[in-house]
Amino acid sequence: MLNTLSVGTAGPRIAFLHGLFGQGRNWNQIAKGLAGPDGTGARCLLVDLPDHGRSPWSEEFSFEGYADAVAATLQEVAPGESWTVVGHSLGGKTAMVLALQHPDLVDHLVVVDIAPKDYGSLERFQGYIDEMRALPLGEIESRADAEARFQEPNAGVRAFLLQNLRSERADGQSQWRWQANLDLFAADAALGHESRIAGWPASVDGLPPYEGPVLWIAGGDSPYIDPEDAETMRRYFPLARQLTIKGAAHWVHTDAPEIVVEALRRVLA
């Protein structure tokens, strides 16, 4: 079972899947907004995908494997129930594959700023992987020390990546390690245009389209979704409708949390 965090005590069930290098808690603000002050607006499950957060690591990456791991977790949390599933970026692809492989488990699907297509390679993430692997974990004395040594100049990106750094006590001393499976991601990035993480699994082409309702949220300032992606999206998800949020980049739910919460409230209603 994958590691999860629950927010809310009553209402419809909704699961959140994060992006590459993320964790389930990245959706905490949105989950609290949906659950409401008394926790009865929704039962939110923030999932750490495999190879992320406190979830187990994989020996080999596949979207099919990620989707099956999420399905098993949702079934264990609420046997026999269906879910609204929200996924961003890597989590969005996982959510799409989940809906195609396990349609009875997904009541509604929400895909955030990603399309069902091959993005070519992990080149845009290679620098992050290299920076993280270059951090001398054995020399770090504190989190502040780690932040000072980390080479990423963008403060927001630096904080996002360093959330993956975890301290554990051993022999009376703190030992630092990455929660993200960097070796797996580096091996995938080394495949170049054969990257599975950047790609889209051919196996789903043999599955029937997902016939449930789908909300496809795009950031108006994000380069991840092109106009021609709509045809591909509706081939897999015929009932998909698109919502483009002006002024939002790839991290739509961070840039426009109020709009995303309101859109999800309408989905749950």
TrEMBL record:
Instruction: Name the Pfam families on file.
Output: Abhydrolase_1
Which InterPro entries does the UniProt record give?
AB_hydrolase_1, AB_hydrolase_fold
Drop me one GO molecular function for this one: hydrolase activity
Has the keyword Hydrolase been applied to this entry? yes
Domain of life per record: Bacteria
Q: Which SUPFAM superfamilies would you find in this protein's record? A: alpha/beta-Hydrolases (SSF53474)
Read off the Gene3D superfamilies from this record. Answer: alpha/beta hydrolase (3.40.50.1820)
Q: Where is the AB hydrolase-1 domain?
A: 13-256
Q: Which UniProt keywords apply?
A: Hydrolase
Q: Can you say what this protein is called?
A: Alpha/beta hydrolase fold protein
Q: Organism, per UniProt?
A: Intrasporangium calvum (strain ATCC 23552 / DSM 43043 / JCM 3097 / NBRC 12989 / NCIMB 10167 / NRRL B-3866 / 7 KIP)
